[in-house]
Amino acid sequence: MRLIGFIIVCLTGAFLLYGTTELPDWGDPQSPASVHLSNHYIERAMEETQVPNLVTAVLADYRGFDTMFETAVIFCAGLACFLLLRDFRKEKERFYRHVPTGVILHFKDSKKKLPIGKEFQHMDKQWVPYDIIIQSVCRILIPFIQIYALYVVGHGDFSPGGGFQGGVIFGSSLILIAIAYDLKTLVTRIKEKVLGIFAAVGVLIYVGIGFICMLLGGNFLDYSKLAKIIPVDPGHIRALGMLGVEIGVGIAVMAVMAIIYINIVSEGKHDEGL
Amino acid sequence: MTEILSLIVAKYNYWLYVILMMIGLYAMIAKNNLIKKLVGMNIFQTAIILFYVSIGYKKDATIPIIEGAHGGHGASGAAIHAADYINPLPHVLMLTAIVVSVATFGVAMALAVRVYQRYQTLEEDELRMRLSEK
Amino acid sequence: MHWQIDLIVLTFVIFCAIAAISVKDLLATAILFGAYSFMMCLLWAVMGAVDVAFTEASVGAGVSTVFFVAAVFRTSRRTKD
Known about the structure:
The structure holds three protein chains of three kinds.
Chain A: H1 2-19, H2 37-49, H3 54-62, H4 64-85, E1 94-98, E2 104-107, E3 120-123, H5 132-154, H6 163-180, H7 183-189, H8 192-215, H9 237-265
Antiparallel strand pairs in A: 1-2, 1-3
Helix pairs in contact in A: 2-3, 3-4, 3-9, 4-8, 4-9, 5-6, 6-7, 6-9, 8-9
Chain B: H1 2-30, H2 34-55, H3 88-119, H4 124-133
Chain C: H1 3-22, H2 26-47, H3 50-74
């Protein structure tokens, strides 16, 4: 198997290497990829949309339909993880730890509960002694990460960034909560339902903006028609439409990243994990 | 001699991308562990993304963000020449591809966790054995 | 862009890829794969694709490594090849 695989790989590689002789030189401004459509984007995007970051302009405006379905793919990935792994059976046993003494209480009946707070804390089989330094540093760091994520989403029109990156950074700040404290902290702070609703609402914002444009008499995702209901400079309206779309993408991506992480790390039980 | 050197400088990127692609393909075919296969898939994917991004590159051009446009609204004074900016179109296509790739990677990991829950192994030959036992 | 920098980073990328698929410990694979993604991000930043580099830095080197470690935590760390 290994030998056959190696032969197949070498054959494919030889064909591809032979194919590179036909490709344009590296960095050639006259290569076929950059003489047709992209020149229009580079030269006209600024006056048509007033967004200096060409990548955002093409992503959210010229190819907005494409990006909408990419967002839908991400939503479907979150849904697939949920459906594959989510396990609603409750664990019968519960463990609590008495913080001042370190004594562990083992409850065999899941109906009895202790108040979680300064005195008692949750515990599970994978419990490790928590580290006060990591928790304090993360507690200080997480708000800054989240503000940075919002900046990346909001400033995506002018600098590198946008909905995808900002959403991923926001989602990773949620994952950092789960890593620094424990998974229960994250799950009690942000309920599973809220995350699911966020993922759906993100896609809905994107599609909704498209439909509003249709209702106002334009094509799907034709942001210039939004000027009828939003009183701003008509030249700037496309940038504003793009910002709305990016916010939708950011919300969807943020929620889906958190859903995938929580489901993988707890095998769908949402109670214990890394 | 200089001809060969210029040929190498013009094409070595493509050769190295092909090598990267071959590494990914080999891992997908020959590795026994499912997670190793996933790593191979991701290497293959990034090699293709790398190829796409590199065909948009232009010599002596800057990043695709219009200069001097951050001040106010309205068109900036100077005309914009396409040769001064790197082609943004491959970047857009590949940006979404990367984010979709991490989402599909998550689904693949979920599947791997599920396979491990049921068969207690991720090795391909052991999986075949467990499947033929039933 | 200087082609020397490009060549050095590409060589590192290929080394990281070979190491990631040949080590026998999946946690090491996770970290090497993160390093691979970060090298790739560097390559794109040098190539002028700043948005793609940003995405790869946050997605490839960040979140996908975390998913990887989470999956290894829930499955097994050992591998035969």
